[in-house]
Amino acid sequence: MLTPTRFLRAQWTSTLHLPKSAFPARPTPASTALYLKRCTDDLYSWQQSKRYDPNCTTSSRPETFVLHDGPPYANGPLHVGHALNKITKDLVCRFQVGQGKLVNYIPGWDCHGLPIEIKALQAQKNSGAEDGHGKAVSRLSAVQVREAARQLAARTVRKQMDGFKEWAVMGDWGNAYKTMDKDFEMRQLSVFKEMVEKGLIYRQYKPVYWSPSSGTALAEAELEYDENHTSTAAFVRFPVQASKAFRGEFQSINWEDLSAVIWTTTPWTLPANKVIAVHKDMDYSVVVISEMPKSHLLVATSRIEYLESILGQKLDTVTSGILGSKMAGNLKYRNPLHRRNAKPHPIIHADFVSDASGSGLVHIAPGHGMDDYNVCSELSIPAFAPVDDQGRFTDAALPDQPDLFQGLSVQDEGTNAILGYLKGIDTDYILGTHVIKHKYPIDWRTKQPVIVRATEQWFANVDGIKSGSMQALEEVNFIPESGKVRLQSFIEGRSQWCISRQRAWGVPIPALYRTDTGKHEAAMDGSIIGHIMKVIEKRGIDAWWTDPEDDPAWIPEHLEGSYVRGKDTMDVWFDSGTSWTLLPEKSNGPVADVYLEGTDQHRGWFQSSLLTHVARQATSEQVAQGIAHQSQTSDNKIKPPFRTLITHGFTLDQDGRKMSKSLGNVISPDEIMSGSLLPPLKHKKQKGKGNSKNEINDPKPTYDAMGPDALRLWVASSDYTKDVVIGQPILQAVNTALHKYRVTFKWLLGVLGLQTPGFDSFDLRTLHARLLDSEIPLIDRIALHRLAQVSKEVHTHYTAYEFFRGVNTLNKYIAHDLSAFYFETLKDRIYAGSITDRLSAQRVLGVIFWELCQMLAPVCPVLIEEVWEWVPKPMKDISEHPARMVWTPFDLPVADVGSQKLNRQIEVLNEVHTAIKAAQERARAEKKMGSGLESSVLISLPGQVNGLTADLLNKSREEELAGIFVVSGVSVVEDEGLETTLKELNPAWNFEEPFDIHATEESKHVKTRTGSVLVVPPNQHKCPRCWRFVAPEPEALCQRCDEAAEEDRR
Ligand SMILES: [Zn+2]
After folding, report:
1. Whole-prediction pTM value?
2. Which Pfam family would be a valid example here (predicted)?
């Protein structure tokens, strides 16, 4: 049986105003789809239509904000890198919607290129076709390859789009662009045509990076580097011939048997050797190896010691002091791999020769090296590369015995074949070989080594638009700033861009080749491209491959002779680089407000977008002279395609390693949304049948699934300007924060749902107006003050694209200011206080609710949608949706809010509060008290305090202070009065803690005086309704509760 006391207590509890909300503890999958639709498609189309209101005058029409999507490759499943990219973009877009902008975000996909072609071919292979990857399965026709690749890309686009939408990424999905769309291809071809007309595209036989495994040329952006590549390096000697004058000058040299020693890490390039280079200022010597005393060897003097160490032989100097400048032009040599009767080759000077490695004499093969090519072009020595598309020697590699090397893969058997041959012929030309480990370029897709090989390719002339591009970059806002130097250096260091690829899956290079002259000459100009574009418009782009080779429709009438269509396709960076053509021109600035991608795009998309965009604006004269626009008037300035360029890092596992399939550390976005990377939830025992057996038998563990917001909050909490680490501790913190948000909103929804006479409107404007009209208690002023500070801070961070700082501020605010402090002080006021108490608290909490919704809307849109769903209908009906309102940081001109004075008073209050909590802890440790209400506080001030403190800690505020500190009573006493007060009170126990009072209001660093708090037992009785110890006698209500209960009864 219940005792009467208990019974009474239970009765009083029923008169309390306890918040009730059934807001769930975690998202319910059944409703998530609905919320997702509302916060993505619905919100996006709402802001588009609402803000395109035809009744709007031009001047009142909102500003547009364009985030131009860098298209991801349409191959493979989504990973956390995609999430970092797409969600960061979404944070930007959502914040801008909250700023009242009309946001345009059209997602795109990069659909052409080798990666997709290889995948499509692989799929074909798996379904029956034989042979290895890439080129090897080339028994498929180009058309079949294109069809397979198109289907694969289309399938992947659909899958990835579904994934992006599940992350609550908002955009114009219905109009997503694909680089394989006809419309896109035509725009791209028109940019290409303009570049051809301005003389920016040319064809040349010169060395390019060539991937034997893919059978195509590659741009630098398509290379990766293997840090541990091993190569066989060799010291090789070539027999030297000297002019008579030179012979006379150095008589000690055995001219009949003098060799130049060169060093190479690619012996397979020796058949293509055309020149040996020395440096004019370096000193060279003739040395002998004791084993071959007659053989004189020419090497750089400073390299002798190194050579001895590698060859393991002592080298004796015959003569030294031969300057490079003397040798250049006076010495020639013979390459034993060339025809016996071939003319000797020159020894020349080259600036890049140094004595940092090798022998100080450099083997030059203009067909296999960029520097080599440049040096030789000046001397009119043509490039020569006896290597085919698959990286195998042709019969030209050894003209005297064409069959010997033909068909050997240069990188595998080629090196040994060449070295073996040079060792085996009459004289041994190899002095020594050794294996070296060095950094070597590999194909970014096949991961196989590439070679440098001269072929005929199409190039864009970057030199012609370089200074215009550099000028345009000056206008760009870079985040982080380091991106500027990085992009500048890439542009600066580039003179050409190889844009042709020998693959089928791409946009054709619209060139024709003449067949009746036997020279296979290329023809490509504006009118030819214009004609070809018209045919494509009519027949579709696949007709370029399917029409008969000599179909006359493709050949413009003005051309004489017979022509066929070319087979090259364009570099995919050219495809995606021209995506700015989708954006409407803006008179007052770049077409896009923001481009945002990973740092690897400085080499890729950022660069190709800038170059093509600048090429379109530059005039032919500027291109020819390689100059920028000189005029500084705004309409003449070369514009970059982006106003702000944001780069993000990569995602790493918690040990800081890159994620890769081979390491097995790849994290999928689904795992973050389902919570399966965190320990499973503990099952609650079911009442009645709960036993441990059941738990063990439960087959499926359940996880803390927080849905898309978990993935989004992880992204928003990450400093994306660096590489982003992801692992269990971070994900745990993310889920914890999300639960904190939910608990906070649940409580707020409960309190805001309490029926209080006078709490008539939930609309933010009305709430603001009511606050302005009323007296605001100190604690509420503090809460509003902090809200204003935090809201402004978060707004500033979001504006600077520093979402992680905003989220960090917000998390601290929710945990410390709201949950641990303000909400604690409010509980008694709301649950047990008068109507006036409750009403004023509800108004302040209403403002906080709105502000929280607006601050969190970009980050956790699904949560905000869910919260909105749970707002009581009558209140919702007369308010705007928080994600559709313009968010201006809270700033209300009410007493002291935002003032320095209040700031300082909060500091004082914190000091006193900290002291009280410390004293209470000691009392608890000695089992003197439990809840804070089981104590009262004496605040003892030193004799003189500043006005600010006096205004805060004084007799008239004692009741308010008790509420703030959540204790049953506060007495403020002056220092001298403390002893008297204590004597009068004679408490059963007391615990004292000091705190600092600052003597001046200006600075807390100037003189402080010490006050103290005394925590003592309360001297009244526990009120059975509010549990504060303020009742006049046992089991009686306190005065406040008496009045409040009476008020409710009326
Ligand atoms: Zn009470």
Report:
1. 0.86
2. Anticodon_1
| pLDDT tens digit sequence for 465-510 | 999 999 999 999 999 999 999 999 999 988 888 899 988 999 999 9
CA distances (Å), origin 744, targets 28, 845, 1000: 18, 11, 38
Answer yes or no: is pLDDT of 4 > 50.
no
Cα–Cα distance list, 392 to 153, 412, 441 (Å): 32, 9, 18
For residues 353 and 412, state if they share a domain.
yes
Task: Write out the residue range of the structural domain in which residue 207 sits.
Answer: 183-212+452-509+568-646
Parallel, antiparallel, or unpaired: how do β-strands 563-565 and 1008-1016 relate? unpaired
Q: How far is the CA of 773 from the centre of ligand 1 (A)?
A: 28
Which of 630, 646, 662 is the endpoint of a domain?
Answer: 646
Distance from C-alpha of 747 to C-alpha of 18, rounded to nearest angstrom: 10
Residues 791 and 927 in one domain: no
Beta strands at 969-974 and 102-104: parallel, antiparallel or unpaired: unpaired
Q: How confident is the model at residue 133 (pLDDT cuts 50, 70, 90)?
A: very low
Q: How far is the CA of 833 from the centre of ligand 1 (A)?
A: 8
Residue 853 belongs to domain with CATH number = 1.10.730.20
What's the CA-to-centroid distance between 230 and ligand 1, angstroms?
Answer: 83
For the ranges 233-237, 462-466, 657-661, 740-744, the lowest mean pLDDT is seen at 657-661
Distance 929 CA to ligand 1 centre (A): 19
**Ligand 1 centre distance from Cα of residue 933 (Å):** 11
Cα-to-centroid distance, 318 and ligand 1 (Å): 110
Cα separation of 970 and 948, whole Å?
19
Is 523 contained in some domain?
no
The Å distance, Cα 754 to ligand 1 centre, comes to: 19
**Residues 365, 307: one domain?**
yes
State the CATH number of the domain containing residue 499: 3.40.50.620
On whether residue 47 sits in a domain, the answer given is yes
Indicate whether 480 and 457 sit together in one domain. yes
Q: What's the gap in Å between 828 CA and the centre of ligand 1?
A: 9
Q: What is the CATH number of the domain that holds 363?
A: 3.90.740.10
Do residues 191 and 327 share a domain?
no
> How far is residue 91 from each of residues 105, 239, 712, 883, 910, measured CA to CA in Å?
12, 68, 9, 13, 35
822 Cα: distance to centroid of ligand 1 (angstroms): 20
Mean pLDDT of all residues belonging to the chain: 88
Burial letters 340-374, b for 16+ CB under 10 A, else e: eeeeebbbbbbeebebeebbbbbbbbbbbbebbbe
Q: How far is the CA of 1031 from the centre of ligand 1 (A)?
A: 7
Task: Judge whether residue 129 has pLDDT over 60.
Answer: no
User: Ligand 1 centroid to 1030 CA: how many Å?
Assistant: 7
Is residue 784 within 8 Å of residue 844, measured between CB atoms?
Answer: yes
Q: Tell me, what's the pLDDT at 418? A: 87
Distance 11 CA to ligand 1 centre (A): 13
CATH of the domain at 988: 3.30.2320
1048 Cα to the center of ligand 1, angstroms:
14
Quick check: is 8 in a domain?
Answer: no
Instruction: Judge if 337 and 311 occupy the same domain.
Output: yes
Task: Compute, in angstroms, the gap from residue 1025 CA to the centroid of ligand 1.
Answer: 5
With respect to residue 896, please indicate whether it lies within any of the assigned structural domains: no
User: How far is ligand 1, taken at its centre, from the CA of residue 180, in Å?
Assistant: 73
Identify the CA nearest to 883 among candidates 903, 866, 900, 897: 866
Q: Distance, CA 823 to ligand 1 centroid (Å)?
A: 18
Residue 432 to residue 866: CA distance in whole angstroms: 74
Which stretch, 354-368, 964-978, 1017-1031, has highest mean pLDDT? 1017-1031
947 phi/psi in degrees, rounded to 5: -60, -40
Cα(920) to centroid(ligand 1), Å = 22
Distance 842 CA to ligand 1 centre (A): 20
- Number of folded domains that form the chain: 5
Based on the domain organization, do 113 and 207 belong to the same domain?
no
Choose the final residue of a domain: 884, 905, 931.
Answer: 884
Q: How far is the CA of 243 from the centre of ligand 1 (A)?
A: 115
Q: Are residues 409 and 498 in the same domain?
A: no
